TrEMBL record:
Keywords: DNA-binding, Transcription, Transcription regulation
Domain of life: Bacteria
Name of the protein this chain belongs to: GntR family transcriptional regulator
Annotated organism of origin: Dehalobacter restrictus
Domain HTH gntR-type: 9-77
Pfam families registered for this protein in UniProt: GntR (PF00392)
InterPro entries the UniProt entry points to: Tscrpt_reg_HTH_GntR (IPR000524), WH-like_DNA-bd_sf (IPR036388), WH_DNA-bd_sf (IPR036390)
A molecular function (GO) term: DNA-binding transcription factor activity
SMART domains named in the record: HTH_GNTR
Amino acid sequence: MKLKIEGMKPIYLQIAEWLETEILNGAIGVNEKIYSQYQLAEMYNINPATAAKGLTILAEANILYKKRGLGMFVSADAAKLILNRRKNDTLKNMVIEVIGEAHRLGINTEELITLIKELTEKGSGLSDVCD
């Protein structure tokens, strides 16, 4: 993953989201040890406290759990928790923005659904966002 230093999203959130994606993709499995704050800091040339903040977010969401003296590990429900949050928070907010823009452009619900279906069937641009 490449961090977007100049982006609007804080680095610690980018780290947390990247780790979530790694869990969802199966690159990091259940009960598997996750990178330490120092490993993440070295990988991305960031302050360990920044990396720790990203890990803390995941621990507070019960996606990771701590084993004293051993580090952090992926919880059994991690993928389910991530999917639920992304679906119920992130995806809903994105859909709300799309609906708002469609409304401003005078596109009705049926036209918007047709557009989504067409793009999904063509796979248009999906490889860019699905990687």
